[in-house]
Amino acid sequence: MSDDPDVVIDTVGEFLVHALELEEASSDHYDELADSMEIHNNLKVAELFRKLGGYSRQHAKEVHARTEGIDLPTITPWDFKWKCPSSPESFCMEEASYMMTIAQAMEIALFNEIRGRDFYQQVADNTANDEVKKIALEMVEEEGWHVEMLREWQTSLKEEPPLDDLDPPNMPE
Description:
- This protein is an all-alpha fold.
- The protein has one domain (about 5-90, about 95-155): Ferritin (Up-down Bundle).
- Helices cover about 60% and strands about 0% of the residues.
- The protein contains four helices and no strands.
- It has helices at about 10-40, 45-65, 100-125, 130-155.
- Helix 1 (about 10-40) runs antiparallel to helix 3.
- The protein is elongated.
């Protein structure tokens, strides 16, 4: 994340719109990955992504509950104040493969959760609004818990052999 002054968020409404977009996009992306893994019969990795999507949905519900009674601004997609092509917890599709192992899937998830945590930390560090700072630091703590959970899961992984590709892509010669 950047310390660019353009990314300062100083109203609770604007911050909550960013947080909702981040968490909802995160759950959508995890669900897309899970769907893809299921199509390719990579069920262990699909299960991991479903679980992570569930965490993001729960987090989005918690953020949505905070919006009660707050006037939320409308923010166009290009006006969100994150310095990446889409929301910080969006994954890079080029890193995903239908043959990925759980360890590889966890690396993608860990990268995304760290970016989400860092976005919230950047907001907390740069805002002049005490309420925005308080909420952002709560989000940092939540995302930090996700990061630590993934790291803990990584330490308990057993070495996996690569999956056999029972239906490799047909490439013209």
